[in-house]
Amino acid sequence: MEHLQSLADTHDCRLFYFSQDTIAPATARRLARAHAAAGLSWRWGTDIRPESALTIECCTDLAEGGALSAALGIESGSDRVLELINKGVDLKEIHAAVEHLAEAGIAVEFMCFTGFPTESFQEAMATIHLIETLRDHIALFVCGEFALVPGALLAQRPADYGIAEIWQVQGDEFTKALFYRKTKPSKQARMQEKINAGIDALSTRFWLHKYPWAGSLSTAHTLLWYARYGPDAFRRAANDRPTSRGRRAPRPKSPYGFDVAKIGPEAEANEAHVWHTLTHERHLVSRKVYRELANRLPSVAKRRRETVRKRGRRNSGAPAET
To answer: Do residues 271 and 124 share a domain?
Structure first.
């Protein structure tokens, strides 16, 4: 506590984030009690597991001892998937931990994923349903797609999870990610559109700001919003957002000569294709190869020039090239 207070004094700091995989509830509670006993004014956030140790009494101590937010690794809304990843908690414990933290006034951030090997479509949707069920207790959430990292049980026993092959790409000197091929092609890919639609629908219940990332989990600007406006700041901001009625306002003309919003999905699809080629076909990542693949894609600027040229020919009465 003396070290933290020294940092607060030196840097005029009002917020700390304990950035680590997780902090034990007992450790967090000791810190909170020492914070309260010293009458300190700065506040803090951390990552923490949704364990049964997060009783209402424990969460009250955390809140009274400066706890502002808690990012929880929920992972899945399926008990079977939680058991497969050896999470060590079940849905009943998750529900209790989330409710106790929220009741104590701590902003609860949900971290989930879909696409775990052997996960069914119903189990993926159960994760979305869990977020929907607890959304009044959640400050923010993220639900991404499963990514394999070294040290995970799946990496140690791939055959147990229906994995035929695992590899590391050349160029990843720190081995931050592993890639894999399933024994049987996943049927979930065909259902991904529905999964994404469910996540998008939930996201409309929360206000997000792209820069400076207010609304992103565990970031400084998000913590500032919690501190000033409360743990439900992003839910209330979404509810207070005015809805457009009647005629839609015209979109501002782009200074680039093309509609950035319109080509966004195409650009994302192209980027995903390049990334898949690098990681799943060539098994390497480098600037040279990335540029080689990217340069094969059609240029928006060149495509626009071609369009303008053809329009000019039509307007002049000359036959357009085909």
So the answer is: no
Closest CA to 238 of 208, 211, 216: 208
Round to whole Å and give the CA distance between 134 and 125: 14
Work out how many domains the chain is built from and give that number: 2
CATH number at residue 221: 3.30.750.200
Quick one: CA dihedral 298, 301, 306, 311, positive or negative? positive
DSSP 28-39: HHHHHHHHHHHT
In tens, the pLDDT along 192-237 reads 889 999 999 999 999 877 667 788 898 999 999 999 999 999 999 8
Residue 151 scores a pLDDT above 90: no
- On whether both 32 and 160 belong to a single domain, the answer is yes
Q: Are residues 165 and 272 part of one domain?
A: no
Residue 313 has pLDDT above 80, yes or no: no
Angle value at C-alpha 301, between 300 and 307, nearest 5 degrees: 85
- Kindly state whether residue 198 falls inside one of the protein's structural domains: yes
- Could you tell me the pTM of the whole model? 0.83
d(CA 197, CA 143): 12
122 and 265 in a single domain? The answer is no
Domain that holds residue 287: 260-315
Give whole-number Cα distances, 146 to 43, 53, 75, in Å.
32, 27, 9
Burial label for 196, CB within 10 Å (0-12, 13-18, 19+), is middle
